[in-house]
Amino acid sequence: MLLAVLFSNSEGNILVERFHGVPAEERLHWRSFLVKLGADNLKGAKNEELFVASHKSVYIVYTILGDVCIYVVGKDEYDELALAEVIFAITSTVKDVCSKPPTERVFLDKYGKICLCLDEIVWKGMLENTDKDRVKRLIRLKPPTDV
Amino acid sequence: MASGQDSAGTTLMDLITSDPTAAPASNSSTAPVPPSTLGKPATTERKSKRASLMQIQNDTIAAAKALNPVKAIPQRQNRKPVSYAQLARSIHELAATSDQKVSQKQLVHHVFPKLAVYNSVDPSLAPSLLMLHQQCEDRNILRYVYYYLARILSDNDAHGLSPGGGIPTPNWDALADIDAVGGVTRADVVPRIVGQLTSEASNADVEVHARRLAALKALTSASASNSEVVTKLYEIVFDILEKVGDTKQKRKKGIFGKQGGDKESIIRTNLQYAAISALRRLPLDPGNPAFLHRAIQGVSFADPIAVRHALSIISEIATRDPYSVAMALGKLAQPGGALLDVLHLHDVLARISLARLCHTLSRARLLDERPDIKSQFASILYQLLLDPSDRVCFEALLCILGKFDSTERAEERAAGWIRLTREILKLPEAPSVSSKDNNAQSKDGLPPKPKSEKSGLKSKRPQPLFKLAMRRLESSFRSFSRPVLHAAARVVQEMGKSRAAAYALGVVGIDEGSHIYAHSDNAESIDSDLNDGSQSEAARRALSLSNGPNGKDTIAGLLASLMEVVRTTVACECVYVRAMVIKALIWMQNPHESFEELKDIIACELSDPAWPSALLNEILLTLHARFKATPDMAVTLLEIARIFATKSPGKIDADVLQLLWKTCLVGAGPDGKHTALEAVTIVLDLPPPQPGSMSGLTSVDRVSASDPKSAMALQRLVQAAVWFLGENANYAASEYAWESATPPGTALMMLDADKMVAAASSRNPTLAGALTRLQRCAFSGSWEVRIVAAQALITIAVRSGEPYRLQIYEFLHALAQGGVQSQFSELQLSNGEDQGASGTGLGSLISPMLKVLDEMYRAQDDLIRDMRNHDNNKQEWTDEELKQLYETHEKLLDLVSLFCFVPRAKYLPLGPTSAKLINIYRDRHNISASSGLNDPAVATGISDLVYESNMPHKEPDSIDPELAMAWAAGLDDGLLGSNAPAMDRVNEFLAGAGTDAPDVEDENITSRPSVTYNDMWAKELLESYEMEEDDARSSGTSSPESTGSVETSISSHFGGMNYPSLFSSRPSGYGVSQQSESKSASRFGSSSAFEGRGSPVREEPPSYSASVMQRSESFENPLAGYGGQSFNQRDDEGTSENPQFGKALYDFTAGGDDELSLDAGEEVEIDYEVDGWYYVKKKRPGRDGKMAGLVPVLSCLMMNFKNMDEFWAFYVSQHSKASTRRLHFLGTLSSLLCVVASLVSGRWILLLPAPIIGYSLAWYSHFFVEGNVPATFGHPFWSFLCDLKMFALMLSGGMDKEIKRLGKRPVL
After folding, report:
1. CB distance from A45 to chain B under 8 Å?
2. Rounded Cα–Cα distance for residues B109 and B107 (Å)
């Protein structure tokens, strides 16, 4: 189960969040926990360098892409490595949409599109599409495999 | 978000709409949208109800904001912050003109992206969206339309909370109720949306199949509880699969989705994908053969994602019904079948699901009859070990190890270890093997598949799984990627668990020195072995035959080289990876190996301040789990636990540490008990922390508590250790008064103290050692430690026989008197306390203890005298005398039971000599020895509760003495009450559960208020006591040094005893305590919240009931006792306050389960306030049938204030913002000016604008600045006066002071 996908800017403002199966009262804890993790560790990190954390049986993988920090939280079959796949799908799509590692401004300009991409990548707590070309087609409402 | 969204004072919307040239941080524009949720974002989502009410003002606020000159930062067009309402309006407008290019562009580029910022979409947008859906052709618009329709569908009813996140939006339905958004609720629009999407999803027209897919996807967002939608979805999905699911014409599939053929087949593929994906999101239907059938068809689909979903559906069904899945998979699993193709499918998750599926099927009991099938799946699983993806390889490894989910059993794990070390991977298609294979499993006729040779030549030869796994893990540990390291360490940890399980069960004579590389010469025997699905003797012989001198290929050799790599990983800079590595090392630690290295590693690690406490506690719990798996390691683990206690006392949970001590003590066995106890007492022997000393960071014995916080925590640990020692020393020393190996002669009592100590220590060094340490603590520790030490000493005194009791008696006596203590220790000189009459300040605590001991000794003396008299006179004991004796016996038992648990049946307060007489009396009067009728614990009914829940565990008559000891010490592991919080944590950890959110504040050092039985009961006790006692002494609120709080802490510590009567009601009334006790007992019985006491006379409750109680009690952290004090205080406050009453201002409709609907004007009682909500009680059930629940503070209630002062506090709280007050000031000023003008000019007409100006300004500030309702509505006159008061205060500059003054006092 992919519990959460969260984007924040470098100051810790949350840009996008998608929760699944996280009770409302725990979301705040997750948010602050993740943002704190990022603040502690992501300073000076390379783009797309993967970081890992865990809490009880939940895994967290996070990274930074341009000005944007991306956090993915999962459990069960979504362990660190599966989350690394998820985060790879996300970063490659975001890069594709923003045409390079995004600055915050670019990210926000493409906000709608990124939401749509995320919708295609993570669907009801499960990883769906990983291929960025496929995602690109789908957000234009083209069939996944083009005729 | 506390550090997030609001930290910079900007919201997402501000960020998005801000000018690109302006740095986002400098945009100081606003509070979050909606502004009503200002303040702690923590509560924004929870308060969506309140937000909904405030939403009404949203537009105006946005307008007001735009007007505010401060915020008029340079903004380009289209970059203005947009309110939700503006967006909604534009959607309505643009939807109507969606055929124009301009509006389309506007929608795609501005409106829809910005709308995505909000966490949910208001249902009243649905008609416009549906209109767009029908009429618009533009794909980009349509994609957004599907997105938002899906969001409306997924929006769950409770709090307008969708998984989406984003800026909190109100609960639209609640808003619709008050008709703020046109009265459209989700219930109105959802059927329409579903209808339209369903018809589209069923549309078989090829041209629109992309839209069909999108519609199907959007539909799956509807909540699974909506059975109507689910049924429809099933219909559609099965309908599609009916048409396209058949994969008879075999296509090239897999890696290149794009390649391949005609339009028709592509559309087919797409539909297959969409249908299976939708099916995956639907609830499983394991009993339905059609469901399984479709899923199995899915394995052969061309789309890799479709295959992934199909496999995960199948593997989930397989856990419930392996047989039918295996049957249905049938040929697919055979060589050349679709399942084997999955091995090469370019989709990691698909292969993971495959691994799980194979594991489930190869382990299924139901398939025991079909070893061929099982081995087929096992072989696929083994092949996955060669997978290029680490993730898949690790999953396969975990599956082989028997780690599947958190429910695995030890046998599974042990079998997993054997599998891993013994089994051999043969690729069925490798010619060298398959030619020899005479099994049904391998189809010799099939041509080998050339493309499967992933790992080149090597894979052709049979490979021992273990070697494969080790090689893979080693290379993973060389990776630079943190997730890979973390995962690899986790796998090693799981490996350690399986190995420990194998050792623990002793399933095999594990010979790790054996050579694992079995040559393929033995292929046949190994084949048969594989097909048996279990380890056979033959294989082992075959394996040991080839046992060679080459150490490199032995299991031990491979493991050693792996562990070498693992240890180096400890240098990783990521703490989480390090934590995982340490856990792995703990698990891989063998009981017989030296653990020095591990100890050093941990000690070294703990010196790093970067460790979060949650992580350290997890490691501590790992120690616990390790102990459960291998009790032999108790001492090793205690040593490690000690490092935690000394190195990072501030970060670890004392409860968990104590539990670890306890379980280790029990598990250590008779020989290890002394060592185990020593390990605990080492904590006491620690030198006090030296502030600022940074030397010797790696030294294990040095305490690292350089800051005051950790020093405090260390203090707590010491307390815990002292308490633990008191509770368990007797158990560890096997010394009990009632089980004494050598009943002490009276001669011993004649000795003086020094000789006594010498005699004692020669008899039982463990206990003597513990006593010495406790005595030292009773002198030299902090106040808390000394109290606990005194309690511990009395416990030992009661439980031990002579000479220990006498030794302690002497000591306590000295302690109570003071002045003589110098002969015991020099340390008291340094604690800087007044050593005067009060001695160590423990007098009030110790004197009742001494009195009990006095009583006991006096009664023993009397008994001896009486016996001598009787003997001399050759007199028989009369019944009357016996009765008296028995009563004394019982009375003393009761007294003793107040301090600690003793087995009533065995304990003889009158000394061993009384046994005979007591028994005579009991026999005559048919009193069962185990009668606990007068046991205070039983009488109060508490033990009943615990007793009932534990009843099936044991028989009263067959108490094994050793077990009884364990009980007495509160040690029996299996029976630990589940109310021990630490136990919960351990169990949760052991079960692998726990996904709840992390706590970020690791700074919390105050003991958490664990509301356990004891606390509750203590509270109960104290309450009733205080109510009866008209004495002015209030035990709860006195200073720590006073007796009062000592009582409190003691009484809550001694949970089940009626202590207060001992300490306070009758401070000196020992002679009559029997009477007072029964009185108080009945009092407690009636006032107790636990209605365990049905009838006053209980039928022979078995003796262990008390022990059970004691067990749960003894788990209690001694510190929890101090919680009782604050408890009490809080209670005082609670009772001293009168209930607050309020009246509903408006109708309020409950939006959630815990909320309460109100009608305007209803009277309610306000219980308490939680962030913006009142918990209120009604006099009679309202329209929703509920009596109590939450309602928003604002707008709904007004208080019944008793006087103007109370109202003033409320009034000030309602004018919390400076702008509000300024506007009020302005209003009042202008009104006054009007009045003055009219007075001066004599034109009365000038009076008219006065209230209008005044009130309009004030109300404006309430609605749009403060965001609440003017107090005038409730109390027009008072609020007018308060207005003037505020005016005056502001004029004189005293308002800020007033706010400060009132801020300290709770308004309610």
Report:
1. no
2. 6
pLDDT digits (tens, 9 = 90+) for B1234-1278: 888 888 888 888 888 888 888 888 888 888 888 777 877 777 888
Considering only CB atoms, A13 lies closest to which of B7, B139, B993, namely B7
CA-nearest of B858, B868, B756 to B801 is B756
B1288 touches chain A (CB under 8 A): no
Cβ contacts of B614 on chain A, cutoff 8 Å: 55
A56 part of contact set with chain B, CB < 8 Å: yes
Residue B324: closest CA among B378, B275, B367: B367
Residue B785 pLDDT exceeds 50: yes
* Spatial distance between the Cα atoms of B888 and B1074, rounded to a whole number of angstroms: 10
Kindly report the nearest CA distance between residue B258 and chain A, in angstroms.
Answer: 6
Backbone torsion region of residue B724, taken as left when φ is above 0, otherwise alpha when ψ lies between -120 and 50, otherwise beta: alpha
Range in A87-96, B524-533, B833-842 with the lowest mean pLDDT: B524-533
Q: What mean pLDDT is predicted for residues B238-246?
A: 79
DSSP states along B753-774: HHHHHHHHHHH-HHHHHHHHHH
Residue pLDDT, tens place only, B885-914:
888 888 888 888 777 777 777 777 777 777
pLDDT of B367 higher than 70: yes
Instruction: Give which of B686, B691, B695 is closest to B715, Cα–Cα.
Output: B686
Distance CA B500, CA B502 (A): 5
Interface ipTM? 0.94
pLDDT digits (tens, 9 = 90+) for B211-241: 888 888 888 877 667 777 888 888 888 888 8
Buried b (16+ CB within 10 A) or exposed e, B1000-1018: bebeeeebeebebbbbbbb
Task: Read off the pLDDT of residues B435-453 as tens digits, 9 standing for 90 and up.
Answer: 333 333 333 333 333 333 3
Residue showing tokens 């003894």: B1114
Say whether pLDDT at B534 is over 50: no
Tokens for B1199? 């208080």
In this complex, which of A20, A61, A142 lies closest to B163 when CB atoms are compared? A20
Q: Which of B303-307, B372-376, B1261-1265 has the lowest mean pLDDT?
A: B372-376
Cis? peptide before B803, omega within 30° of 0? yes
Report the phi/psi class of residue B173: left, alpha or beta, with left for phi > 0 and alpha for psi in -120 to 50: alpha
Distance in angstroms (rounded) separating the CA atoms of residues B618 and B21: 47
**Which 3 state secondary structure label does DSSP give B1155?**
strand
Residue environment code for B1125-1159, b if the CB has 16+ CB neighbours within 10 A, otherwise e = bebbeeebeeeeeeebebbbbbebbbbbeebbbbe
For residue A69, the chain B residues in CB contact (below 8 A) are none
Take residue B1064 and report the two structure tokens written for it.
């306070």
Encoding tokens for residue B1092?
């365990």
- Cβ contact, residue pair B1, A80, below 8 Å: no
Q: Which two tokens stand for residue B534?
A: 């279990």
Distances (CA, A) of B615 to A57, A80, B305, B995: 12, 17, 36, 14
C-alpha of A11 from chain center? 17
Contact B578, B572 (CB under 8 A): yes
pTM for the structure as a whole: 0.63
